[in-house]
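Incident log, structure service

09:12 report received: a user says their structure output differs between two submissions of the same chain.
09:20 pulled the input from the user's history:
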Amino acid sequence: MRGQPPALLAGPVRLPLEQLVSRFRERPWKITTARDLADAASHPAAILSDGGYAVFAKLSAAANALEQFKIELDGLRLLTERAGVRTPTAVGVLGVPGGAVLVLEALEAVERGPRQWREIGQTLARLHRVRRERFGLETDNYFGPLAQDNRPLDDWATFYAERRLRPLLRLAIDSGHLPLAQARPVEKLIARLPGLCGPQVAPALLHGDAQQNNFISAASGAVVIDPAPYFGHPEIDLALVDYFQDVPPDVLDGYRDELPMDPGFAERRELWRVFAYLAVIAVDGSFVDRLSQAVQKYL
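09:34 re-ran on a clean worker, output below:
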């Protein structure tokens, strides 16, 4: 198995992983092929197969890896049960020496054309049709590796300030990656939020981390992965779709097939990315310039 990911195929991980899939399948399952996905994932990850049945597996060495992966599965289940969107079949979560492994049934991705991009927008709209009265969620989860506080609030500007911007600003400063001179304008932005957030919206079910790589385009349609769900402003998801890479207009066209978009979204797009810029800064120090440019736009 050339290019095999050693961490997933080492004995302490491989044997319990094979046993987990065997129990799920109710028949013996042994890894015979492995396709390393290190270039496309933030954790050691691979497609593993016995020649007939394939799974996606990713390994985390975080101290709370088992908890994080269980919460990730809860998030996928929430999106499927509440909105009916497609998510991968969960095989299970496995504690292993030094971390945990998340195992999902593998999906065969197809090349994205206009239809596939449009399906991503349509999937987001189906999530956003699910509404409730308060912003947030009864349980906390994770935005990437960072804990995400979802305690419900009645007002979006307050939720965005107190549950997203302030906590992530503290993390970015404490990481040593964000100088105080560039943190102070974020504080000024937070004070101005009530006048910047646009029309009142009903809390909508969000993917929460809807950048384009968190969807798999399968032959049967878009499949949601790696969510950080809560009830929030629907423009958050729309702002994150092209957060790392540009996407074609088909995505927003697909969204409009299902739901209208406020014409002021383009003006607010960078406002909704500020929390994500802070998260990336807290983790690895990049995007400081993008944060500063975004904040200055609203001051």
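09:41 both user submissions now match this output. Likely a transient worker issue. Closing.
09:42 reviewer note: The chain has a mean pLDDT of 95. The chain has two domains: 6-105, 114-297.
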